[in-house]
Amino acid sequence: MKIEKVFEYDLSNELEAAIQELLIDSFPDIYPKDRIYFKQLPHFRFLAFNEENQLIGHVGLEYRVMNLNGKPVKILGVIDLLEVDQFSEGRNIDFILLFTDKMNFYLRNGYKPVKNKCKWMKIDYETQTINGIGHEEVDQLMIKEVGKTVWSGGDLDFLGYFY
Q1: Cβ distance 96 to 146 under 8 Å?
Q2: Which ranges of the chain does DSSP label H, i.e. alpha helix?
Q3: May I ask the CATH architecture of the domain 1-163?
Q4: Using CA atoms, how far apart are residues 60 and 154, in angstroms rounded to an integer?
């Protein structure tokens, strides 16, 4: 297996079509049929290819600052997961953050569920328009501490859209 890091602006039409097919096959009931992102483009992707150079895995990653109880924290957001732990080691990242309904896998790999009151910009994924501001405690939120900052409960402002 070969894994490549690809920035969004470097994707060829051929690679974009392969990503589209993989995402629709993986999320057939919810993934948009006309693009390779759900709400917003990731900053870059890791793509996994088999020996025949066929795309077999994918993860989109977004690096951004969020506000945790009035303190800025550096977050690596996971979108349409493959695996990001090794990438995060030794980098300027405080936490890996993701949402999942399959917590057991992540619990075994050092992630922990957290309870925070989240605030985010709502984006309607079908019309691609801003739909207001969400503000509620969200289930299925998990983090992994990869920096020196300790996660705390309280308010988490995404300073942008919800993954």
Answers
A1: yes
A2: 13-26, 85-88, 103-107
A3: 3-Layer(aba) Sandwich (3.40)
A4: 27
For residue 75, what are its two tokens? Answer: 């977050």
Q: Tokens 């470097």 correspond to what residue? A: 10
**Alpha carbon distance 10, 101 (integer Å):** 32
Cα–Cα nearest to 114, from 159, 71, 69, 82: 69
Query: What does pTM read for this prediction?
Result: 0.58
Per-position DSSP letters for 71-96, written without gaps between them: EEEEEEEEES-S--HHHHTTSS-SEE
As a whole number of Å, the end-to-end CA separation of the chain is 27
53-92 pLDDT, tens digit each: 888 778 888 888 888 888 888 887 877 664 555 556 677 8
Q: Which two tokens stand for residue 118?
A: 């989240």
